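Researcher: Structure prediction, please.
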Amino acid sequence: MNRQSLNHDYFTDILTFAYAYNPIEGEMYISIDRIKDHAIQFKVSASTELYRVMVHGLLHLCGYDDLNKSKKAIMSSLEDKYLKLL
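Model: Predicted structure follows.
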């Protein structure tokens, strides 16, 4: 899907396709295999990594992107903020 939709030739943990921002509408596709791999890599539980990816996708649906270093830092900060609320 990553190759077909975004022309990216690598695995990813989530693909998010926003259709509208008000109301928020879109689709998220999550790779459980990548979630498991990242959980091991980052030394967190698979459920914690799944929650992070879900929050990441929701931030994309809200209009945030991570196309450069500063925007990626903003998204990472927001992920941490919202994960603390779970």
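Model: Helices lie at 2-6, 32-42, 46-61, 69-83.
Researcher: Thanks, that helps.
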